[in-house]
Each structure stands twice: as C-alpha cells, then as structure tokens.
TrEMBL record:
<dbReference type="InterPro" id="IPR045886">
    <property type="entry name" value="ThiF/MoeB/HesA"/>
</dbReference>
<protein>
    <submittedName>
        <fullName>Molybdopterin/thiamine biosynthesis adenylyltransferase</fullName>
    </submittedName>
</protein>
<dbReference type="GO" id="GO:0005737">
    <property type="term" value="C:cytoplasm"/>
</dbReference>
<dbReference type="InterPro" id="IPR000594">
    <property type="entry name" value="ThiF_NAD_FAD-bd"/>
</dbReference>
<dbReference type="GO" id="GO:0016779">
    <property type="term" value="F:nucleotidyltransferase activity"/>
</dbReference>
<dbReference type="GO" id="GO:0008641">
    <property type="term" value="F:ubiquitin-like modifier activating enzyme activity"/>
</dbReference>
<dbReference type="GO" id="GO:0004792">
    <property type="term" value="F:thiosulfate-cyanide sulfurtransferase activity"/>
</dbReference>
<keyword id="KW-0548">Nucleotidyltransferase</keyword>
<keyword id="KW-0808">Transferase</keyword>
<dbReference type="InterPro" id="IPR035985">
    <property type="entry name" value="Ubiquitin-activating_enz"/>
</dbReference>
<feature type="domain" description="THIF-type NAD/FAD binding fold">
    <location>
        <begin position="109"/>
        <end position="335"/>
    </location>
</feature>
<dbReference type="Pfam" id="PF00899">
    <property type="entry name" value="ThiF"/>
</dbReference>
Length: 339
C-alpha cells in the first residue's frame, strides 16, 4: 500500500528539531524529529510504499528504523493511505466530490467512498425553495444527492434577490420552481430531479409529496403557523425522517431532526393549537412579512443540510436529534434546547 503525507495537515517549525503539525488550532500537536526522520517523512510528499521510501533513503536509516518511524507516523495520521490509489475503481468517486469524500474518509477512515455512495443513493424532498430552501437545494445538488424533489408555488419577486441564491432579475415574475430547475441542472446535471409547482394546503398534499422518500426537509412557511405540525404529523405517520430549518428577524432555528419511532417529534416542541382562523389571526397572518438578510438564510440552510447529510451518509452523528439549535445573530449566542 502507498502512503502519503496527510493533505489536511500543515507543519510549522517551532525550533531546530521541533514542529507543530495539525489541521486546526485545536488539532495540533508538537513533535520532535531528527534530520533523518524528517528526510524520510519528506519522501512521502509523493505517494510511495514503505519499500520505495526505504530504497530512496539510500541507507541513511536502517530498515527497522524506517518501519518504526513509518508506523509511528501512520498511528499519528501524519501518513495516510494514498487517496488517489484508493479511488481507483470506486463508482462513487467523481472529481466534483473529491474534497467531501476526503473529509468523509478523514472523519471515518475506510468509510469515505461508502458515505458518498449512500448520498448518491438517497432520495430527499425539499418543501420550499425560498430563502433557506434555495440554499439547501444548491447544497444538496452540489454534494451529489441522488434524487431531489423540490416543491414551491411562489413567483420570484425583486425582494427575493438579496437573499435567495438561485434567482436573478431576469427571473422576476417567473415561478421559482422553474428558475430553480434551470440553475440546479446547470450546477449538477448528473442527478435526478423533480421540480413541483404546488401550494401546500393540507396534510394530504404533504403526504403525496414526501411518500417514498428517505428524508424530508421543511423550509416552507405556508400555511402560516400550521406547516411545521402538518409536516410533522405526515412524516411521523409515514415513518420518514425530517428536519426544519429557518430564520427570522435576528435568530436562526434548526431542528429537531426527527426519526419516527426513535426520537421525539415536533409535537414535543409545540402543543396542538386551535388553528381555526378568525378576523384577528387572519389580520396578522395575511400581512406577515419575513424580515431578514441573506447571511441568516445561508446559515440556517448550512446547518439544516449538514444534519440531513450526516443522517443519510453516517459520516458523523447528527447533532440535532431531540434538540433545537437557536443562534442569536446579534451576539452569536447559541442555545441547544432539549425537547
């Protein structure tokens, strides 16, 4: 097997024989290497086998010393299996996904290509492609989610352009779902998509849209005050995992990630309320306008999509099971609320 220096690590010289090595500030460690050990490890700047490194060292180190240093470097993940050699023959590999497969592999050694294959085999339905949803759709498509059904009914408005990533001025007045179809297929034409122009009004509507899918993401806000519980009821009834993500005024809220039969659901967050409209509630709900800026949508979408990908691939444990994350965007104070 060929090994190579860990491409996610960087090295900084501290003193003559001491070096600081790592990927981030909290994942750095100091090592002491004599000139012979440094010379040996530098040979792995290009992928090679231990035998090739031994030959290139030209007798500067004994074979047992070479093998001891290499074993130590592998144990410390300074040396890792050559990714280029590993990817040969892997159907899940595509240059587009190179960096994320490397991340999957680093976080779960031996699992990187399997994680990508799981994502490629997944079917996700996204309810709403507005502020948060447009970012989520972009992310899921860019990462190679095999089949995506996107649902929306609205038209692009000028006020959308400062906070919804998929649309531009030429799209104003057009259906969001039609514009999203064009942009996303340009981004990644290798996937399967379905773009549905549909206004959700009942639980039956949601059931028809999400049945048979592996995961549901809710980023829609209509019907006002009802959509979260409606989506919850249907997802639990059908046994389809789902998550909500969104932002409003000065905060971002994501979660909980609900796995029916295994976790609590949204009914543990908000009790069933009387949803009958009267003149008072109608006056409020009909005049509702979301007030936010683009970074809020991007932040909410990133966490929502990440939890979805964690669940589908298994490269890392989802964080928001039985939890809601609320980020106060005035001071970045983050609350992880148990449900």
């Amino acid at each position: 097997m060929k090994y190579i220096l860990n491409s996610s690590f960087m090295a900084r010289k501290v003193s003559n024989d001491k070096y600081l090595i790592g990927s981030t500030l909290d994942k750095q460690f100091e090592i002491e290497l004599d000139p012979s050990a440094r010379m040996l490890l530098a040979l792995f700047g290009k992928a090679c086998t231990v035998e090739e490194a031994l030959k290139q060292s030209e007798g500067a180190l004994r074979e047992d010393e070479v093998r001891e240093i290499v074993k130590w470097a592998i144990d410390e993940t300074i040396l890792v299996p050559d990714f280029e050699e590993q990817r040969l023959g892997q159907s899940a590999y595509h240059p587009i996904y190179d960096r994320q497969i490397r991340l999957f592999e680093e976080l779960s050694p031996g699992f990187g290509f399997e994680a990508q294959q799981k994502l490629t085999n997944s079917k996700v339905v996204l309810l709403g492609v507005g502020g948060t949803g447009s970012y989520i759709l972009y992310t899921l498509a860019a990462m190679g989610t095999g089949f995506i059904r996107a649902v929306d009914f609205d038209e692009v408005q000028l006020s959308n352009l400062s906070r919804q990533i998929l649309y531009n001025r030429a799209d104003v007045g057009k259906l969001k779902i039609d514009c999203a179809r064009e942009r996303i297929r340009q981004l990644n034409p290798d996937l399967n998509y379905e773009f549905v122009n549909k206004k959700i009004e009942t639980e039956q509507d949601i059931e028809e849209l999400i049945k048979g899918f592996d995961f549901c993401i809710l980023s829609a806000d209509t019907p006002r005050k009802k959509i979260k519980m409606m989506a919850n009821n249907v997802s639990v009834r059908l046994g389809i995992p789902y998550i909500y993500g969104g932002s409003l005024v000065d905060s971002v809220g994501v979660g909980p990630l609900v796995i029916p039969g295994k976790t609590k659901d949204f009914s543990h967050v908000a009790p069933e309320l009387d949803d009958t409209e009267d003149a008072f509630t109608e006056a409020f709900n009909s005049s509702f306008v979301s007030t936010l800026i683009d970074p809020y949508n991007a932040l909410a979408a990133s966490f929502t999509a990440l939890e979805c990908v964690k669940y589908l691939t298994g490269f890392s444990e989802p964080t928001l099971i039985n939890k809601i994350m609320i980020i106060n965007l005035k001071n970045y104070e983050t609350t992880m609320a148990d449900i």
